[in-house]
Amino acid sequence: MALIARDRVVSRRPPARKGMDGAGFLANVRAGEAVGGHGMASEASGAAGRPARVGGEGRALPVLCVVAATLVLWYAFAVVLNAPWARDQAGREGRVLGARELVLDTMQQDRPRLPAPHQVVAELWKTTVAVPVGSKRSLVYHAWVTLAATLAGFGLGAGLGIVLATLIVHVRSIDTSVMPWVISSQTVPILAIAPMIVVVLNSVGVTGLLPKAIISMYLSFFPVAVGMVQGLRSPERMLLDQMRTWNASRWQTFVRLRWPSALPWLFASLKVAVAASLVGAIIGELPTGAVAGLGARMLSGSYYGQTVQIWAALVMASICAAGLVGLVALAERLTFAAMGGRR
Q1: Which helix (H) or strand (E) holds 143?
Q2: pLDDT digit string, tens, across residues 11-33
Q3: Which residues lie closer than 8 Å to 336 by C-beta, 6 or more apart?
Q4: What value, to the nearest 5°, has the Cα angle with vertex 47 and ends 255 and 162?
Q5: What pTM did the predictor assign?
Q6: Is residue 274 helix, strand or coil?
């Protein structure tokens, strides 16, 4: 009976693969993931540092708490900063303000030092919904002018960053000579470079969108270049050796292994770069004397002391930045879904 039971257990074991030991089978599986599965390589490279998913309520509650704390602090600072003006005006009129009257006065000043949140919301409503979109008083119109330069600069910066990263990874002389200059380029303040770029381009007859796009590109190419260098160098040595064993060319190794592995780094860098592009576009509007754009809106508000107008433009810029980052995140999800991975 013991022999019969032993024979049954042995017969249930899976048949061994002929002509392939365990190490060879593992190597083929790993190499197959590198060459045949675009999504497998990218998912494996990004899984190590990927945080655990939490529910929608778990993610929304911290955000709501931060927003509520920000609003409370905003109102508190508005009262503190606007109170001296309210007391001064009341003293000139021979009045004494109580605590309630003081708070109410600080919330409805025409030119406050720090406008209250409801004043900014009212200005946003007045300049986005209450006026036609094509009007030069509309923040939607100004936001579109800035977004046009942002998207142009972001495209140029992302393309330049990817090209530089590819050359740095594959050409050692460029790695040792160009990479230090790429890092050093970000040590120069953009506020010092922007007027120089505008003046030089204006002297050769280049005006309008291109100077702002170049300034935006200057800020956006760096995170893409640095992130892509790390991403293209992220594949394991064993996978690179397996590609050499299969006599794969540099182009095949790049397309089949390096590029899929670098996608998590690419999209993380693009989220930073697109926000930096918006900042560059706004900065590029300041020294040009532009009459349209969020930067021009802020500048005109500073000339006439319209702090509510300045803050409304700032909030609109924040909304645009959040929307752009959300679009990059959506592109990331769609890309990994098409590759068979999960993000």
Answers
A1: helix 139-170
A2: 444 444 444 444 443 344 344 44
A3: 39, 42, 43, 263, 342, 343
A4: 35
A5: 0.75
A6: helix
